[in-house]
């Protein structure tokens, strides 16, 4: 098992390198001359040339990439000109907040998605199945950013049960309960689409598994129906659903961009949107790299989890 | 050009009946109420949006600060106005127009580029394929929206740039799907034929391959276009798409967000519109997928419940025997649509304690369904037990409560199935599965059950049982797996073991060992065995009596020696002639001409009549009874092979 994890870890290296090449190439493709941008359009050609040399822009793209990668590996992602602080500091601070939000959402969507899928499959064609199928349709069709607004209107404005924005209360906040209250609405909003997708797939996987011969064997040996469903069928269905949960982490991490904007969550998504508006490209670069790398590791986790459940994959 | 022709041909096919007279794909789509609803709503929206320039609504960009933030229902402003006094209905209609147009364009771009990549990768194979697919994998390694954001960051905010970004991040879905199909197609005969006739690669790709992958492209488009509309709206919502004064639904929502507390209707209106639009596109998309690619139809096939449905009109009276198992008039049917397949059409059986009865017949004769019906293991739907009585331990088990049935299953009656690879759970160790069988019936601790399971594994002669205890089924050979199944069946000392072709899936050399094991252990414990097989050789080795099934009924039953030596029913005779005998090469093997009748259209009289050389006029009328035929024997034939002895 440890050997397998090691191998899988090693296999992420080329993917991470590929990600870095794409991100670097995208930023290098941006039209315009950084030196002119910094010095203004009245700069003398000599000054422009000197600055280009200082920035390393006179060297070949490959050399530039290697220098950039070297700095990156040492934790240096450059400096955000709009915030005037190191990109790495800002990015990791914001990423923490996004992880809290995304983690809570993943927990919610896995739990409720699996549960709803199993309930629908067991009561196939019955009223439970119809309700779940209907909710799934609503879930995948609702724009999450609009749902967020609706929830704010209902729970924050009308009922005043939960706060509408931020991660902590401005005055006297900071405890775990305060965090939970602030987390509830954005985490639920972010989880809705993923919950629907997971529920749909779990239902299909369960129905597929319940037709298998080994489920008949379990029934033939007198195992209780509850055990047949929650132990025999569910474990097999899980093998098919785990990679989907891995893929959903990508949608949750990406969807955080909307939700953080709606709920003023101090995460990396809102930072990216602001950075794009202010053309703070180094910040965009750093943010995209960190989130993309974390997605690679979430998928790795899903792979390992799948292998733990299914011995045939080892 | 060739591509356009192919697209045109496929489009006409969508609305025409096929040669078999089946309804057109369009008719099938509308037949599904959900898709029909989606299609109707979508049509209304699209018609409204196309007609918008001609509708009597105000200009969407004219501001009127005096009438700002009017509530819906105000005179002249059906849906109210926004913070600049612009008419919301008009802005919503124009915004929907933009959103649909942008979503469709993004879909077309993604479909064209993605399909092209998929076609080339799948057709070229080799290095081109792996290079292209590595690239696609890399794009997919980014979280979906994040990559779109990065692209917008490079290109700068704007509706067109948002469109490109969303198109690019959706390319992988098309490339992957199309590549998969193309890969399969490019190894098919018609592609080879085109290649041999001198067609160029481009001609083959666009004239031969493309028309065949078009349904997949359409399915992928119809299932992703909703997403793309949603995501472009999302980018506009963030202020990275449509720029003022132009509005799409997303940017309207973005403006409404700032007025959330004062004028919630400004964000509710466009939000509802996106929701309705995406929902009906998803409904139509699911419908299109089900019609064009039925294999993907999610969860349409019914999963069997815990026990077969029993729907008997009359129940035969309780028999007075000391038999372990007594079956009377058992009828099991499969209800598929309006068809009724009578898989078991009235079977009577008795098994004395410790007796071994062979149940023989061709595939489809109903022998396995009979075996599964005993403890209601036939899948419902489509299976229904329509009549008869199964008496075990003096009670009618077809009327048993779920808990009584559960206690019987694996307790007094145990099953051994055909293919041990598919009948053992792949994700649990074999030891665990035996322990589970024990603990389902005996209130003992896990440790005690493990000790028992280990003894059982030794009993079925699995070498180094202790090590195999924690092995998974895929780590064992076929013969070992079947020994595990036998151990599981013996776990609770059953009175009856139902063995459903337990050796068919095994190597010939292993078959004999497993059979001997089953016989020895059942004799040692005094269990009766119902042995389902199509092999008369096995019957003569193992069984005290034999019953021959044909088209769902028993046609002959009796002591196996007598039946084998002097079969009464012509069908039994033919079956015995099919068995090759070692050391008698001069014996001619005879195949039986023709096929058994379909059990949803059984003829009157004898079901075997059409294949029988002894058939006479009276064979084709009425119900032919299973008449006594010598001591302990019975035959369902009017003109048997022998005289009654």
TrEMBL record, chain A:
SUPFAM superfamilies: MetI-like. Residues 95-301 form the ABC transmembrane type-1 domain. Its main location: membrane. The keyword Protein transport does not apply. GO terms for cellular component: plasma membrane. Keywords: Cell membrane, Membrane, Transmembrane, Transmembrane helix, Transport. It is found in: Cell membrane. GO terms for biological process: transmembrane transport. It is a multi-pass membrane protein. The chain crosses the membrane at residues 9-30, 95-122, 134-159, 179-201, 236-259, 281-302. Belongs to the binding-protein-dependent transport system permease family. PROSITE patterns: ABC_TM1. This is Peptide/nickel transport system permease protein. The lineage of its organism: Bacteria, Pseudomonadati, Pseudomonadota, Alphaproteobacteria, Rhodospirillales. Pfam families: BPD_transp_1, BPD_transp_1_N. The keyword Transmembrane applies.
From TrEMBL, chain B:
Keywords: ATP-binding, Cell membrane, Membrane, Nucleotide-binding, Transmembrane, Transmembrane helix, Transport. The keyword Signal does not apply. It holds the Pfam family ABC_tran. It is found in: Cell inner membrane; Cell membrane. Residues 96-285 form the ABC transmembrane type-1 domain. GO terms for molecular function: ATP binding; ATP hydrolysis activity. One of its GO terms (cellular component) is plasma membrane. Residues 325-576 form the ABC transporter domain. GO terms for biological process: peptide transport; transmembrane transport. PANTHER family: DIPEPTIDE TRANSPORT ATP-BINDING PROTEIN DPPD, OLIGOPEPTIDE TRANSPORT ATP-BINDING PROTEIN APPD. NCBIfam families: oligo_HPY. This is Peptide/nickel transport system permease protein.
